[in-house]
Amino acid sequence: MRQTIVRNVADLPTYGYGPRSGPWWGAMGFMALEGMGFAIAIGTYLYLYAVNTSWPIGAAPPDLWPGTVEVAIYLLSIIPNEMTNRVALRQDLPKVRAGLIVMSLIGIVLLVLRGFEFAHLNTRWDNSAYGSIVWLILGLHTTHLATDLGDTVVLTVLMFTRHAQPRRFSDVTDNVFYWNFVVLAWLPLYVLLDWVPRL
Amino acid sequence: MPVRMRTALVPFVMLPLAACAGRQSALDPHGLQSDRILHTLFIFLIIAAIVWIAVVIVLGIAMLRRKRASDRPLALHLPFEQASGRVVLGLGLATLVIVLGLSIVSYAGQRTVFAKDGNALTLKIIGHQWWWEVQYEGDSPHQSFTTANEIRIPTGQPVKVELESADVIHSFWVPSLTGKMDLITGQTNELQFTAKNAGVYRGQCAEFCGLQHAHMAFAVLALSPDEFGRWRDHENENANSPTDELGKQGEQLFRARGCALCHNIRGTLAGGQLGPDLTHVGSRTTVAAGTLPMTPATLGAWIADPQHIKPGNYMPKMPLQSDELIAILHYLEQLK
Amino acid sequence: MSMAADERELRDDGLSSLQLSTRLESIWRTPSGFFGALMSVDHKVVGRRYIVTAFAFLVLGGILAVLMRIQLAGPEQTFLSPDKYNQIFTMHGSTMMFLFAVPVMEAFAVYLVPLMVGTRNIAFPRLNAFSYWMYLFGGCFLWISFLVNTGPDVGWFAYVPLSSLQYTPTKRPDVWAQMITFTEVAALAVSVEIVVTVFKLRAPGMTLDRIPLFVWGMLVTSFLVMFAMPSIMVASTSLILDRLVNTRFYDPSSGGHPLLWQHLFWFFGHPEVYIIFIPGTGMVSMILGTFARRPVIGYPVVILSLIATGFLSFGLWVHHMFVTGLPQLGAGLFTASSMLIAVPSGLQIFCWLATLWDGRPVYRTPLLFVLGFIVIFVIGGLSGVMVASVPIDTQVHDTYFVVAHFHYVLIGGAVFPLIGAVYYWFPKITGRMLSERLGRWNFWFAFVGFNVTFFPMHLLGLIGMPRRVYTYTADMDWAHLNLLSSGGAAIFAISFALLLVNVIISLRSGALAGDNPWDASTLEWATSSPPPPQNFDRIPVVKHRDPLWFDNDSLPVVAGLSVERREVLLTSLAEAEPQTREASPEPSLWPLITAIATTIFFIGSIFTPWAVLWGTPPMAVALIGWFWPSGSKEDEE
């Protein structure tokens, strides 16, 4: 078939930020399905809660402090996260490096705290269905936390190599975006795990 | 009738005749509920048939009718496009009306089928891999008894079955009397039905429950209320004591050869709880949860090698001499 | 962004068309050799592998079906032991659902969607390659397990407590559950790729109301996958945990509940039916438009129907649980919601009938399968209305009536359109036409065989035959209908043999197809058959919903893309206005390595929880290798 050139796209940029970039939509897609995973896990918790007369089953509710401290750190982490986003959009390499290092450290702190939280759940996964679902939900979120931390660390290292090219800044903004998802997911889970058993 | 492999191995067994299976068909209703369900089904079936025939006719006409002249795919006739859009939406609306109407018909049927009657005879049925435990609750504890794989009910009176499971999920289904209901571990379900006519109705487990799901049937015998009363009084009694020497030997062997570890025979020392209660086994119509008709031959074949008839079931093959087998068989046959 | 680089870079507007083709081919082609093949990220190569693998599983699943039909052809047969039979029906269902039906639809989407939207590769091509490997390894895992007598034997929905450790103390249910994980990972990955491809990689000018209906169907399907499959992931994971580390999700003595499993399973399981059916309707719309020689009537109605079907499909899972003792009023409401799905399905059928009514049908094999689809699927839809009714369902649930119903829906609704699609797109994929003569034989054997096999099952269910029984006694009056059904299965099996023969013969000596053998209207027909590695030398510009009918001798295109690196054009979501020229990944071995590491992790973790510990580092290393820039032109822009 004969081709007629009707348009030239040579002037377009080779990467974009946010909804203009492919990976951003990919991240959106994965957040949607992971969010659905969380929703299903929450639904499972509530189902078990509804069919059991006593809740939590054979255990005290989880100690409040690890989850609460995490909530505080998660919420505060939005500030350096957002700052990283801004310097990435400005393509300010030194500040992006600093932002990524801070975010990596926050991730590590949260992961350590998460260890304490498991220890203070006051139940084991094999005690009852209550223990099982609590461990499952916390494990699911921890997987997200650990994955994002791994991603942040790799990106941090990358930004110290010769690969710190302009399009990596778009990757940084996607990483920032994903972290917000990890934070956002934690809030309902915190209410569910730490407060519903106290109802 | 073909010779069945499994019976050929048991030396003294004659060919078992086909079981008097009883009816097991949703199209052959003998209960108030199955009747009503079939009625609902017919309404659906008629409407479905009309819709399908209409679609096929329209499809046929669409294929056969004379076609427009233009062969350019995009040379569309605007009035036709608009008209067809309206027709499509109109048919969509008609579909909506039909399904809402059918939903109402369905719900009306559902209300009738699941209506509860406080005056019902209550039975408890517990599903086991792969047999049915049946408990009759009397007005007082000594009027309660347990039997297995066979349910007798009076005609014309509502029967309430409470359904539980001892292991995995099963499903209680007697299509000629009513629809099915699952027996779910850790939960008690209820089902009520009323037999209109006396007769034998076959039921079968309808939820896959493992290796021998295919051989987990039972019989429902609907009797006239008088007959039912007599049967119930008799069933409530302890097992008959053996009257002859062979029977007494059988009773002893029943314990000595381990049968009593699993089976209960009320009024004797046999008190096992794992397998079906055999107090009045001799009066039942089938062997091995509806697998074979009850005859001396089939019962003997079953005791001789249950793993051959129903591979993988939990009744082990016991090493019995043939004279021991004959004695036990003779004893059980007397447990009418 | 660096304008300096732009200045140095060679663009496609500076080349003759032959030079352009050659250059693009050399940068987009899959490397040669064995390792080159393993590295491929070309959506056409991966799509072809996906299609062939899915059909291989269809053949395997079909053989199992034939074995079951032999066993059931007469009463009291001993052809299969109960243990084998239970494995076989579980394997049949699991294979057909998880290894054939869903993957084959995704396979066609992987191959066709990028071509239909006018781009050069699917979004996230490495993820796509990874997805295929996961699917392949998961499928092989299941089948190898079966061949060593560890095939799952608890039914394709693996109800607890039967599938719990207590009642099935073998590895069989673990194999089943982990096969689910494999295929779900694969399906979820493809879904995200499809969504992003449709959202961002459409050719300029392909606004939302110019997207081909198959692509719309795959978009809706992908969302269904994304929102349905997490449920089965939670279910299968918790089952494995119950069996491996003693969690108590399904143990009623510790607060768990067997019905939780059913809710989780069917919350996925019902949308699953539409995940299989909606792509089928997309294929029907494409074939119908082409062979009725006019656009499908009611394009917006069809799209809204697809979307409505998608939403409704999440609100009717409970109709699989009508006999579990749920509250009556609730069950009644689910009757209504289940029947409601007849409305969007009906609307689509009406649109297709209207299209045929006005069109000038050309009765080639693809259209025959579509006509067969309408006749069969309507029966399946109507019997679906019946099983949605609570009272009727109490009789037909878990009987052969339901077996008949879902085969009418799934084979009628998805396999008939699929075989039509094979005839329709085979020329595009291979460059050769399938034999029309064999095609007609194929169709009539399939149509007759299918109906003779499955129609009698309606009656069998009503006269009391439960599903999943390995045998029945002679006095049950089921023998004649079963024999008839088995005879039909033989005819039906022959139809697939004919298809296979047709494919083999036509691959060698079929007539050459040319770019657009059916005079179809969508963009996949605007390139050569088979398409070159770059799909299009220049990205098309879309000015009409049926671009090749709108103008069939000149294709408007864009210029200005790189000819030195793999580049795709990203456009805006609604209006498809060009936005960026994004790099597209090069071939890589890392997706395969990651898939192998993940496979070790998955299989290890049904044997020991410690696999989570030692299985993670290799996966992490593989993923880092995957995403670490290679320093090539694609990466360093």
Number of helices of chain C: 20
Name the structural class of chain B: alpha+beta
The residue-averaged pLDDT of chain B reads: 90
Number of helices of chain B: 8
Number of strands of chain C: 3
Amount of helix of chain B: 25-40%
Oligomer: heterotrimer
- CA-to-CA gap between the ends of chain C? 7 Å
Shape of chain C: globular
Determine Rg of chain B (CA atoms, Å): 27 Å
Key phrases:
heterotrimer, A: mainly alpha, 5 helices, elongated, C: 637 residues, mainly alpha, two-stranded antiparallel ribbon, globular
Secondary structure elements and pairings:
The complex is a heterotrimer of chains A (199), B (336) and C (637).
Chain A: E1 2-8, H1 22-51, H2 64-89, H3 93-119, H4 129-159, H5 166-195
Chain B: H1 5-8, H2 32-64, H3 78-113, E1 121-128, E2 131-136, E3 145-148, E4 150-154, E5 159-165, E6 170-174, E7 178-183, E8 189-193, E9 199-204, E10 217-223, H4 225-236, H5 245-256, E11 286-287, E12 292-293, H6 296-304, H7 306-309, H8 322-333
Parallel strand pairs in B: 1-5, 4-10
Antiparallel strand pairs in B: 1-2, 2-3, 5-8, 6-7, 9-10, 11-12
Helix pairs in contact in B: 2-3, 5-8, 6-8
Chain C: H1 3-8, H2 17-28, H3 33-39, H4 43-72, H5 82-116, H6 125-147, H7 172-200, H8 213-245, H9 258-291, H10 299-312, H11 328-340, H12 342-358, H13 365-388, H14 390-396, H15 400-430, H16 436-462, H17 479-509, H18 547-550, E1 554-559, E2 567-571, E3 578-583, H19 590-604, H20 611-627
Antiparallel strand pairs in C: 2-3
Give your account of this protein's structure:
The complex is a heterotrimer of chains A (199), B (336) and C (637). Chain A has 5 helices and 1 strand, in the order βααααα. Chain A has helices at 22-51, 64-89, 93-119, 129-159, 166-195, and one strand spanning 2-8. Chain A is elongated. The mean pLDDT of chain A is 94. With 336 residues, chain B is α+β, with helices and mostly antiparallel strands. In chain B, the strands form 4 sheets. Chain B has a 5-stranded mixed sheet, with no helix packed on it. The longest helix of chain B is centred in the first third of the chain and has 36 residues, at 78-113. Chain C has 20 helices and 3 strands. In chain C, strands 2-3 form a two-stranded antiparallel ribbon. Chain C has helices at 3-8, 17-28, 33-39, 43-72, 82-116, 125-147, 172-200, 213-245, 258-291, 299-312, 328-340, 342-358, 365-388, 390-396, 400-430, 436-462, 479-509, 547-550, 590-604, 611-627; strands spanning 554-559, 567-571, 578-583. By secondary structure, chain C is an all-alpha fold. In chain C, helix 19 (590-604) packs antiparallel against helix 20. Mean pLDDT of chain C is 94; it is low at 1-6. Chain C starts with a helix and ends in a 10-residue tail after the last helix. At the A-C interface, strand 1, helix 1 and helix 4 of A face helix 7, helix 8, helix 9, strand 1 and strand 2 of C. Strand 1 (2-8) of chain A pairs parallel with strand 1 (554-559) of chain C, so a sheet runs across the interface.
